[in-house]
Amino acid sequence: MIGSLNNSAPYHNLILTGSVGSRVNPTGALIAKRLGTLFINLDTELQTREGYSADDLRGLFGEARLKRLETELCREFALRRGAVISVNAPTLVDMENRERLLSSGPVLILTCMLNEALRRLYVAQGARFHDPKVRGASLNALRRDAQVLQIPDLPRLDTTRLSIEQTADNAIVFWRTRETVTDR
Predict the structure, then answer these.
(1) d(CA 80, CA 10)
(2) Within 13 Å of residue 159, how many CA atoms lie on the same side as its CB?
(3) Rounded CA separation 71/63 (Å)
(4) Phi and psi for 52 in degrees, rounded to 5?
(5) Torsion of the alpha carbons at 158, 164, 168 and 169, rounded to the nearest 10
(6) Among 61-65, 82-86, 122-126, the range of highest mean pLDDT
(7) Is 161 helix (H, G, I), strand (E, B) or coil?
(8) Residue 148: which of 103, 94, 99, 112 has the closest Cα?
(9) Cα angle at 23 between 176 and 126, to 5 degrees?
């Protein structure tokens, strides 16, 4: 399948989101690498620019400031073309951010079954996963991220039984298919 993909990114952006454990960032980075395009992660960009993580910004300056910064970044991202953009689910739940990002390209929600998400979290966190606080934070993140699944008409890709490479292949096909549909 990889041989059938050419190495240029579509004109419009691909916006990826998903729950903890669905491997959005590794998938987005692999897609960008394969197609020779830019991969942008909203949370990383926020931390780079502001010097604080989203949780720290929320704690120090409040939810309103965090939302304003996320909205500014979404405006900037929507001006780009041919990029793979990873945004967290709560940012995409915000209607203004969602509409702005959708105007720049298709959104794909990466999902996985709960037991697989927990297994992936366990593998990633190791012994820390046994700490009730760490496990509780992970479960809260899963609940928070599930909000995006309530938005109708957003395509989903179940990554439960897919490797990162297979997920990237499917996402590239989705992106290219959406590009030809939107160009007509």
Answers:
(1) 12
(2) 29
(3) 12
(4) -135, 150
(5) -90
(6) 82-86
(7) coil
(8) 94
(9) 165
Question: If you ran DSSP here, which 8-state letter would residue 120 be given?
Answer: H
The pLDDT of 70-75, averaged and rounded, is 97
Please check whether residue 102 is in contact with residue 13, taking contact to mean a CB–CB distance below 8 angstroms: no
The residue with tokens 């700490």 is 131
Sign of CA dihedral 77, 138, 149, 160: positive
3-class secondary structure for 64-90?
A: HHHHHHHHHHHHHHHCCCCCEEECCHH
The first and second tokens of residue 104, run together, are: 């720049």
CA–CA dist 33, 104 (Å, integer) = 20
Upper half-sphere CA count for residue 32 (Cβ side, 13 Å) = 21
Q: Are strands 156-158 and 84-86 parallel, antiparallel or unpaired?
A: unpaired
- Amino acid residing at 45: E
Q: Are 117 and 142 in contact (CB under 8 A)?
A: yes
| Banded pLDDT at 183 (limits 50, 70, 90) | very low
Output the pLDDT for position 73. Answer: 97
